[in-house]
Amino acid sequence: MSKALYWFTHDLRLNDNTALEALLNRHDEVAFMFVINSDWFKPTNYFQKSMGVHRWQFLKGSLKNLHSQLSNHGHRLILKWGNPVTEIMDFVEQHKVTHIVTSVQFGFYEQKEIESVKAQLPSVTVNSYCTSTLFSEEQIVTEQTPLQSFSAFRKYVEKQNFAVRKLSSKDIALWPKSIDVQPVEHSDSVNHVLDKVERDLICDEPLAELQFLGGEQGALSHICDYFSSSAPLTYKKTRNELDGKYNSTKFSPYLAMGNVSPRYIWHELIKYEQSRCKNESTYWIGFELLWREYFQWLLKSRGKSFFRFQGVAKSKPLTSFYAHRFTQWCNGKTKYPLVNACINQLNATGYMSNRGRQIVASCLVNELGVDWRYGAAYFQQQLIDYDVASNWGNWQYIAGVGVDPQGGRHFNLSKQTQLYDKNGDFIKKWHGEYDDKHVYDLVDEADWPNI
Ligand SMILES: Cc1cc2nc3c(=O)[nH]c(=O)nc-3n(C[C@H](O)[C@H](O)[C@H](O)COP(=O)(O)OP(=O)(O)OC[C@H]3O[C@@H](n4cnc5c(N)ncnc54)[C@H](O)[C@@H]3O)c2cc1C
């Protein structure tokens, strides 16, 4: 008899989930677990936490929704917090689990966790499935795929005419029974664990109202609303705007949490093109999804170099670390109103437009001369849609240590303001003006050399 544990990670959904489908079709008894890693809330990564309050709230919504969906099938989500490897191993040993089913991890450290479980539990079979990409590992063999630039990858993918995999069936009529876990005590309930984490790890950081509702239901309803509108028809024209509900798709938080699969979105896009209209804008939505795809496979192939100062290009940028400038940037208190406005938007909502991200990243690297990894780590903490591959990949790109053949990006901040906030409405809305004569560097007179 096989007893399998589903280890949820960035795949918090039931639909179009190949790993879940394999679990339900192949095993006699099953259980579902998610582990909240307590390290996420410790400021270790360039003085930033891996998870800030906005993404925590979004994750919380996703977990509650997942638990309620599992309950509809007579199961529950076992929610733990601590060290994921330890928690998974404890459960497996205690309940004599024979198989672990999980998603393929693209992040370097996430891969290490799975390897560690495998090494410590050699008698348990661990099966991983690609659930967060358009293509599967059989379709994209990283050694044979041109990953030296996005264009090369895109042309390769388009030329090969890869079909994105057919959606896996979403309804399994009969779910296997639950592994006999002790009756749920109050201290084990999803709500109790979430409250405890909030009390012990997040303490008194204020939680803001989110514009996105975490979870599969929220994702599907947002995608349905988006594709019921005419917004996809003008996407290419509006995607660079700094604000607005439908100026861009806002699929990213749901994709990052795995509330929806990119393949589901891809198929919805094709349906839209077939039933309403296909134009350059609809093509561009697919084009951007390919950017996301590209960064996932690039990270898988380049591993740790995604986090190195010299990046995948192995070229050291001309930056250093200026604590004061970095703090001003994080607090939206630089001398650049557009940059401040974008950062204030991020700090208040957990979201910033793609154009905004490019502008503030370019400013940190070029105007302020700060090591790009501090910016990437700050985004990791603040973004509701943080995705390891897209975030570190894009930061490298801007800093000129990534795969961009042009070598970095320097945005002219006055020109960007003219182009995207001509009347100053965005700066006004997000309080970008900051008037302080000490705004650049705090250097004590005594620090200057005597001439
Ligand atoms: C410095 C920097 C850091 C970034 N960090 C992240 C991150 O942590 N998580 C994240 O999802 N995106 C990140 N991006 C990419 C992009 O900014 C967001 O995906 C986008 O703003 C999300 O809004 P949207 O869903 O409305 O995007 P849309 O413009 O509607 O695009 C549709 C989808 O395509 C994908 N996409 C679009 N642009 C990019 C891109 N440049 N790189 C990769 N995928 C893309 C996303 O999945 C997005 O949801 C970053 C960009 C920069 C410049």
UniProtKB/TrEMBL annotation:
Amino-acid positions noted as binding FAD in the UniProt annotation, renumbered to this chain: 235, 248-252, 288-295, 385-387
Cofactor annotation: (6R)-5,10-methylene-5,6,7,8-tetrahydrofolate; FAD
Cofactor binding annotation: Binds 1 5,10-methenyltetrahydrofolate (MTHF) per subunit. Binds 1 FAD per subunit.
Domain Photolyase/cryptochrome alpha/beta: 2-134
PROSITE patterns (alphabetical): PHR_CRY_ALPHA_BETA (PS51645)
GO biological process: photoreactive repair
UniProt entry keywords in alphabetical sequence: Chromophore, FAD, Flavoprotein
One example GO MF annotation: FAD binding
SUPFAM superfamilies for the chain: Cryptochrome/photolyase FAD-binding domain (SSF48173), Cryptochrome/photolyase, N-terminal domain (SSF52425)
InterPro entries: Cry_DASH, Crypto/Photolyase_FAD-like_sf, Crypto/Photolyase_N_sf, Cryptochr/Photolyase_FAD-bd, Cryptochrome/DNA_photolyase_1, DNA_photolyase_N, Rossmann-like_a/b/a_fold
Record flagged with keyword Flavoprotein: yes
Listed PANTHER family: CRYPTOCHROME (PTHR11455), CRYPTOCHROME DASH (PTHR11455:SF22)
Family membership: Belongs to the DNA photolyase class-1 family.
Functional note: May have a photoreceptor function.
Name recorded for this polypeptide: Cryptochrome DASH
Protein species of origin: Pseudoalteromonas caenipelagi
